[in-house]
Amino acid sequence: MKMFKNIYTILALGLLVTFASCNDDDKMDDAMGMEPEAVIGADFSVDIEEVVNLDASSTTGESVTYTWTVTSPSGAQVSLANATSDMISFTATQEGEYDVTLVAVNLAGTSTAQSTITVINPTYATADQMGRPAINTVFNFFGDADTKNGYNMTTPEDGNVPSAGFKGILDALQTYIGLDPATYTNVLGLDNATTASVLATDVLMSNKNFPSTYGPSNPSDIRLGENVLNGRGLGDDVVDVTLILAFGGDLQNLSATQQGLIGDGVAGNDAEFSATFPYLAPAN
Amino acid sequence: MKKLIIACSVMAVVGVGSFLIAADHIDAPAVGSLTTGSSAADITDYYAFESKENSENYVFVVNVQGLTAPAATAEASFDEEVMYEINIDNNADNVEDLVIQAIFRNGNLVVFGPTAPTQTGLSGKVETAGTRVSTAITAYGDTPVVGTSGGIKIFAGPREDPFFMDFFQFVSIVNGVGAALGDEVNTGVYDSNRDSDPDTEGVQPYPASFKGNEATDTFAGSNVLSVVIEVPKSSLGTSATFTSWAESKRKQ
């Protein structure tokens, strides 16, 4: 077997092509059949990470043996699981041109075919954007289609939304329940203008040095970016945190209405989360 | 403010049932609506938290295609034309310094990064310079298939929607705000004599707050398609603090 492999390698290098053609007389053809003609099809393009399938089964000739060589855009040879089959496949992990060579060999001779597979790395454009929970929903609640779509297609660098709109909504919600938005400060000590400007850039803050949580378990111990608004866990009650920031004031002297507005009454998820990856509960 | 008042009036007329949108479920018509449903480009929720398995790791979750009923979940699929990108900003300028990208090919999830992107902002390409991990998408009902490489773990497949909220009570309250700003009195203040349902006899006041004893998780029983990626904290830059956000990006 090893000897055969060596012979194929030599054939693949084309050194015996001359030899084969020197012996191209009728008697040899009768004894050995027809020389193969390697066929691998035309060049084509795929997107990056697609599986490239190449089929040489249209190659002619008796008892043909195949040797494929695929060179990636970086110049390295692609490792092929089935390099001596009439069909190969590989994943196009690099952008650029893959050069494919097929050498088909039988006792009558050798034939080589080549093709080029072009791998495209396409451009992707933003369709939806999300940092903190409920921003587009709550603060663009009154927005029209263009406003909602526009929010999703704006980068945080450009400020996802005008913060004046956010402030207007906070003001309206507080006025509704008899609070004075002009003097309102939330549990973080932020007035509506400041809260609005923070929320208008829709990113989630994280601090790797503290366990992540969206809201504090203890309202009298509040450290912004450490135990408040530090990441977002699966079980974090982000709705209650948002309601507390919008309606809770300093939480010390709550009216009956405020008491009923700082929590939606749904304390947790209906399914239990797992302690191990991927953490989310199985689908219903 | 005037714009808000007009918008509130419109909303009050439209009424309660038209706003089944929450954390970010069907938040904008281009990615999903009540009539078209939530698409693979519609991010319903984004989570970023310290790993429960290993405090040296951080976990990112992007959920899409929300409000998927159990009967429709086996048919729900990721879109090969839609990439999910987690953006990480280490220096508080709101520009991504690192990205983690997820794409789908032939039933597989392929994840790249974290790596510095060659291009920031609204359009980009697959960034192949960093770690590449690939694994099969987990089918509905199957045990999670987890891909691992270079300290990174990845998963993609249907999961129970972890978001919880009494969305309908919230909408009833906010519709009351809209009515208060839009009625002839236009006080903007709660009034128990303001009728939420003029077609019914007697005054049906708007709720001023949540009724805890009637609390219902609007999202109980529904599913999402989920992508979960766990990486070493050390791969997220040297700063202790960072900000992050998720994007869906569509092939052009």
Automatic annotation (TrEMBL), chain A:
Position of the signal peptide: 1-23
InterPro entries membership: DUF4331 (IPR025566), Ig-like_fold (IPR013783), PKD/Chitinase_dom (IPR022409), PKD_dom (IPR000601), PKD_dom_sf (IPR035986)
PROSITE patterns: PKD, PROKAR_LIPOPROTEIN
Domain PKD: 35-119
Residues passing through the membrane, by range: none
Database matches in Gene3D superfamilies: Immunoglobulins (2.60.40.10)
Top-level taxon: Bacteria
UniProtKB keywords: Signal
Name this polypeptide is given: PKD domain-containing protein
Organism (species): Marivirga lumbricoides
Automatic annotation (TrEMBL), chain B:
UniProt entry keywords in alphabetical sequence: Signal
Keyword Signal: yes
Signal peptide (UniProt feature, chain positions): 1-22
Region ranges (Disordered): 188-211
Pfam families per the UniProt record, alphabetical: DUF4331 (PF14224)
InterPro entries (UniProt xref): DUF4331
Source domain of life: Bacteria
This protein's name: DUF4331 domain-containing protein
Organism: Marivirga lumbricoides
